[in-house]
């Protein structure tokens, strides 16, 4: 019996809080729970409802809609405002709406890659099919339509129960779009690596980064790089926690291309290069923060694609 329990635990796979991006550096990003997602959704519903009510009042004031057709127009207005709001907000803010920004959560690709417009559109259209349209139908049907009312209620109940049965708390739209929602980590600039001896290459040459080369990343990326450097520099680190040389080489090359660093980095200088870049990037961010410019991540600094 004990063996079966142990086997079942092993079969569960990796923790849902671990996200593996294409760069190969595992990130610990806690999955957003049902409560915080509900709070974010409620905030977005309130905001879109206020906008829809204002538009309906304007239409009624200008006598562009009659009282008899107000119910049908209201449904159309709520749909016309809601869907574009969710899609455009998540496209503009990289997987966040106003409600998600307030609750410090965001949508990420389930495979760790970049979010695509297709996945964001699909997950939000499915939200309408899962909850809002059946909910609207449930509210508008009368007692003379018991079959339709029961079907809508069953569908909504199933849609609401799906996230509770999924390890990543995904709803149907997330499963189809290949996304899930995470808590945003709080970027913390630690001092351990910054106080170390300045890194230099095998030939004693120091790496120098110009100001414009340090404008591409924020505190979140800096913290991710620090996690990588800590794992590599810890003497007791296991083989599983150490990143492969191929992954380190990939990260170095992506950073070089991103910041426009022209000189190639030899294999023996890759870790010194990353340490030097960390120190320079940390100093650059702290200087900007003194002037009120808090760069939380690379999307705040620029709108470039992911490295």
From TrEMBL:
Locate the transmembrane regions by residue number.
45-62, 69-88
* One Pfam family cited in the UniProt record for this chain: RDD
Compartments in which it is found:
Membrane
Q: Give the membrane topology, semicolon-separated if more than one.
A: Multi-pass membrane protein
Major place of residence: membrane
Question: Can you give the residue ranges of the RDD domain?
Answer: 31-178
Report keywords, A-Z.
Membrane, Transmembrane, Transmembrane helix
* Gene Ontology cellular component terms for the protein in this record: membrane
- Fetch the InterPro entries from UniProt: RDD
Tell me yes or no: is Transmembrane among this UniProt entry's keywords.
yes
This protein is called Putative RDD family membrane protein YckC
Traced from the root, the source organism's taxonomic lineage reads: Bacteria, Pseudomonadati, Pseudomonadota, Alphaproteobacteria, Hyphomicrobiales
């Amino acid at each position: 019996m004990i063996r079966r329990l142990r086997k079942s635990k092993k079969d569960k796979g990796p923790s849902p809080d671990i996200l593996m991006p294409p760069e190969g550096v595992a990130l610990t990003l806690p999955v957003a729970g049902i409560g915080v997602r509900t709070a974010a959704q409620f905030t977005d519903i309130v905001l879109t409802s206020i906008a829809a009510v204002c538009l309906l009042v304007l239409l009624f004031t200008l006598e562009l809609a009659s009282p008899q057709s107000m119910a049908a127009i209201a449904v159309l207005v709520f749909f016309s405002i809601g869907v574009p709001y969710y899609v455009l907000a998540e496209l503009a803010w990289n997987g966040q709406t106003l409600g998600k920004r307030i609750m410090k959560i965001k949508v990420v690709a389930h495979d760790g890659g970049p979010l695509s417009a297709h996945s964001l559109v699909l997950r939000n259209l499915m939200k309408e099919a899962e909850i809002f349209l059946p909910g609207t139908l449930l509210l508008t049907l009368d007692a003379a339509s018991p079959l339709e009312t029961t079907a809508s209620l069953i569908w909504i109940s199933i849609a609401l129960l799906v996230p509770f049965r999924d390890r990543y708390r995904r709803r149907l739209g997330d499963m189809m779009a290949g996304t899930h929602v995470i808590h945003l980590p709080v970027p913390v600039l630690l001092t351990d690596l910054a106080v170390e001896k300045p890194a230099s290459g095998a030939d004693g040459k120091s790496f120098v980064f110009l100001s414009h080369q340090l404008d591409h990343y924020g505190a979140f990326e800096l913290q991710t790089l620090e996690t990588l450097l800590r794992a590599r520099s810890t003497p007791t680190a296991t083989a599983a926690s150490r990143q492969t040389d191929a992954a380190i080489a990939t990260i170095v090359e992506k950073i070089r291309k991103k910041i426009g660093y022209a000189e190639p980095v030899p294999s023996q200088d890759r870790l010194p290069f990353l340490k030097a870049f960390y120190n320079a990037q940390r100093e650059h961010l702290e200087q900007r923060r003194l002037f009120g410019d808090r760069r939380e991540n690379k999307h705040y600094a620029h709108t470039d694609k992911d490295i």
